């Protein structure tokens, strides 16, 4: 039997190459995909450097402090003329602020929101929730969905920033049931409170880089995924789709009916009624006790009608309402008081018109309201 050969010692170069190869494999396995990494880098680049930065920029807490004190916020210059609100918001990377007064949480609302095809990294969500039992339940349910989306969901589904605010006043109605909400005697107080909630939410979230504001009610559960792009493509200062409600008819067949009657063209009858009213009285739409004979967009939808058909409006509803941010910056808000005998969203349309901005409706472009 021949002599036993001793094992050759591995050269240092071989060991180094082996270690580098192992590290490379681990990095490849554990690192996020290129798209996720790019999205993450974009978020970090767009993150606010200080909590006093614009509210629509996501803020990530910094541990760095100077001598135990928080580093003062930087002076930031904004060139507002560079903020566009164009028919091609995706191509121009325009930021969208979606604002929702939320009294109840509907899972279908959130699911529909997640289906919007507009790049989520360009969307900031803002919610105003009342401080009552229903509001507490809505807050808990909303935060659960936010956690799933923002922490464990795919990067493409995550929104740039999410803001939750609680009302600093009590809601005027104890119940948010649909029948109670729509009683005529409750309208002035209810809609005045809604105006206050909308204004508080708007004034605390509208940032200098916001291009569009989409008002989307919490009970809107079905819209086209391209809702933002479709509405913005009309390049209108204020634009509103037609809000309908799906239901089952007496023959147990699926049907739909108009829901929002606040989008209308004015009439001589309504103007005459307003002239005879006291300064604190308001005109209401959709009630037999107050026949205004306005032309309602709710009844202008045609089977197979062109979804891009436009009509001029004097009043708008707020179930789904896209507004160029400059309209709000000009001072158009939701009056919680009688403004030319109008209040809330209808008063907003009137105020915007006084500022030189017109409202447009899309009678054949539909969104759908929850059916209680």
From TrEMBL:
Its main location: Golgi. It is found in: Golgi apparatus membrane. One of its GO terms (molecular function) is alpha-1,6-mannosyltransferase activity. The chain crosses the membrane at residues 12-31. The keyword Signal does not apply. Keywords: Golgi apparatus, Membrane, Signal-anchor, Transmembrane, Transmembrane helix. Belongs to the ANP1/MMN9/VAN1 family. This is Mannan polymerase complexes MNN9 subunit. It comes from Mollisia scopiformis (Conifer needle endophyte fungus).
